Amino acid sequence: MKKFVLLLSLSIGLANVFGQDWTTCGATAGLLNGNSTGIKRNDTTAAPKYATAPSMTGTDIRTEFLIVRSDSMASDSLGNTIIESSSTGIFQPSTIAALGINDTFWLIPVTYDLYQWKVFVQSILYKSRPLIGSCCAILDNTAAIPGVCDTLNAAGFYDSSDVKTLKDIMVISDIYEGYTRYARSLRGLKNLWVNINGSLGALESIGCTGGVKALCYAFDSSSSNHDEYVVIKSCEDTRAAISETACDSYVSPSGKIWNSSNIYLDTIPNAAKCDSMITINLTIVNIDSSVTQAGALLTANQVGATYQWLDCPGITPIAGATSQTYEATTNGDYAVIVSNSGCADTSACYTISGVGILNNDFGADFQVYPNPTDGNFSIDLGTNYPSIQVSVNAMNGETIQSHTYRQSQRLNLSIQGAAGVYLVQIESEGKKAQVRLVKK
Fold this sequence. Notes:
Blueprint: E1 4-10, E2 17-18, E3 32-33, E4 49-50, E5 61-70, E6 80-86, E7 104-113, H1 114-126, E8 128-129, E9 133-134, H2 135-142, H3 148-154, H4 166-177, H5 186-205, E10 217-219, E11 228-233, E12 238-247, E13 250-251, E14 257-258, E15 262-269, E16 275-285, E17 291-294, E18 297-300, E19 306-312, E20 316-317, E21 325-327, E22 332-340, E23 343-346, E24 350-352, E25 357-360, E26 367-369, E27 376-394, E28 399-414, E29 420-428, E30 431-439
Parallel strand pairs: 12-16
Antiparallel strand pairs: 1-11, 2-3, 3-4, 5-6, 5-7, 7-10, 7-11, 8-9, 13-14, 15-16, 17-18, 18-21, 19-20, 19-22, 22-23, 22-24, 25-30, 26-27, 27-28, 27-29, 29-30
Helix pairs in contact: 4-5
């Protein structure tokens, strides 16, 4: 972001006067008193005053300042490119982006009658003469370019209320006369206004000017009589280099978003409002939070990180479960927090439903729960069987209890022995299952 100030390089005293090179009305314009010194950022310059007022015919006389710069078209003092206009003489750096460092320019005051231009545009757009037709149609046959009114509308001029500033008048002049290559030069502006003024008599005779006889103005176009300015940089750029580490993505100081590790260049305003250019050595840390499941064994896929296994759905840490793998001892849902280089991510929850099942011929719907148990537990075979034999054995092979059930799918049992580990064996129609059950 560049910041410019407008610096006076050639000063002219308050007693100096500016001469008027010409005026479209052919009258002798007054003399402009004062000068254009002190045009700086956030400063003001009073509008020039006339010792003898030019022969304006309207009621809304205005003066605006043009910033102009010589260009390749210039063959005389009227061949300067118009950069920007302002009614106050205040020109912010952002409004004169066409000017570069070390460019010189001049301040040109232009006085015009806004009321007359409003009447002129309103008449062209809306007046109509009996038997002859609308002024728009008449102008289509006589103007340098056809479709004048359509072009005015396309430029945003629908009635007199849309004519507000000198910039509007320059656009209207360009549309009316078709001098497009002169649209932003002083030489072209003179030609445009003189030619429009010359056609007013013919337009008035057919009633297409609303009584406007002359679009008068005073134009101080002699750059040699003006203060000369140069665009300079008012502060120095600064540079910095930083290293940053971010999780998944990084938002730069200027608001850019980067998703991969690299060396980036970012620019923001420094304290003096010039550029602060920052070289950022960025490291993006991406966490793989996926998990591989093999029965009751869960393995975090991220290597070389730290881990904390969790009990879902409450996301409660499991004491001591901080290895890359975790083997569930009870059925339930489990997740893991994976941390690496200051970043962390939590996996999805994985369901464990076969804890303690040593072998199973009954299919995927077979369940024994809860495990561990306080003694009471249930067996779900997944479907109804006509005859089921269940035995509960101690780890030394001793049968603690044995039962036969008929026409059942879910069985409710209770271990009568002491706390410890038991083997529960289920058989039906040639199918077998063996479950290691823990009684707390």
